[in-house]
Amino acid sequence: MEHKSFYSQISENKWKSYALFGAVLALVFILGFFFAYLMDAGPLGMFAVAAFAIVYSLGGYYYSDKIVLAATGARPVRKEEYPHLFHTAEGLAIAAGIPAPKLYIIDDASPNAFATGRDPKNSVIAVTSGLVALMDRQEIEGVLAHEMSHIQNYDIRFATLVVVLIGMIGIMSNIFMRYFFWFGGGRGGGERKGGGGAFILIIGILFMVLAPIAAQLVRLAISRKREFLADASAAKLTRNPDGLASALEKLGKNKQPLKSASDSTAPLFIVNPFAGKLAGLFSTHPPIEERVKALRAM
């Protein structure tokens, strides 16, 4: 039953990823088509929009990890800089039966970590310099094992695509509003210009309203159960639940927010990067106390 549940989770995450990819493609195409129509772009413009939608969506899929890494200010780790991180990650990857992920560091005193990528063959684990400084070896092993579990069960693909989708909503909102204020919503004449201007303003306002709501839905879409599942999988991987439990306790005491974190990237991290802010009922992350209790009971 346990193996069935595990593989069902992987299958579910894969299908959700495909659905999100299709949603990005459809959304960009519809918005671009509408935009080209208002600008009197003609058939060539419509073709350009279709091409842009495909390229944007494929780019968002294949480069989603790079987008997230750039957004969080992460940089590649040199093996001579943090040799114990490499040795620990390589050992865990062998135990998990997946390729060793690339390692990145975020130069920030706030302790935290996340995983991103398309699949286990194209995956990254990023940790903050604050986490490396705060944790002992067993605690770092627990944190890396937690992130390795997200990679193993394809949580990373779903979570990273959601981040890109939310970011795109914000970009589209900004484009619509700027276009309306600078060009009045269309360069066609007469009735179409006035109607188009009013309509594009409504769309822009809707996107501005929907962007934060969508960011909130991201937190709900990435289920709290996945964090518990990753904790349990990490404990199995290391055979030492106390390591991750101790790490979570230290993370729970942190009061320093992560500067490079945003509403859209927050669900990726092992704990809430805002250090107590925006937590509670609508947080993606379960309370740290509950996670520690579950680990201590193993």
Explain what you see.
- This protein is an alpha+beta fold.
- It contains eleven helices and four strands, in the order H-H-H-E-H-E-E-E-H-H-H-H-H-H-H.
- It is elongated, with a radius of gyration of 21 Å.
- It has two domains: about 1-65 and about 160-220, no CATH class; about 75-155 and about 225-295, Zincin-like, CATH 3.30.2010.10.
- The longest helix has about 35 residues, at about 1-40.
- The protein has helices spanning about 1-40, 40-60, 65-70, 85-95, 130-135, 135-150, 155-185, 190-220, 225-240, 240-255, 290-295; strands spanning about 75, 100-105, 115-120, 120-130.
Task: Please render the helix and strand layout as text.
Elements: H1 2-38, H2 42-62, H3 64-72, E1 74-76, H4 83-96, E2 102-106, E3 113-119, E4 122-128, H5 129-134, H6 137-152, H7 155-183, H8 190-221, H9 224-238, H10 241-253, H11 288-296
Helix pairs in contact: 1-2, 1-7, 3-7, 4-6, 6-9, 6-10, 7-8, 9-10, 10-11
Compact description:
With 298 residues, this protein is α+β, with helices and mostly antiparallel strands. It contains eleven helices and four strands; from the N terminus they run αααβαβββααααααα.
Task: Give me the CATH superfamily of the largest domain.
Answer: Metalloproteases ("zincins"), catalytic domain
Which residues sit in consecutive blocks of at least 5 with pLDDT less than 50? 188-192
Distance between the termini: 18 Å
Instruction: Give the number of helices.
Output: 11
Could you estimate the helical fraction of the residues in percent? 55-70%
The CATH architecture of the largest domain can be named as: 2-Layer Sandwich
Principal-axis shape equals elongated
Structural classification: alpha+beta
Strand arrangement, major sheet: 1-2-4-3
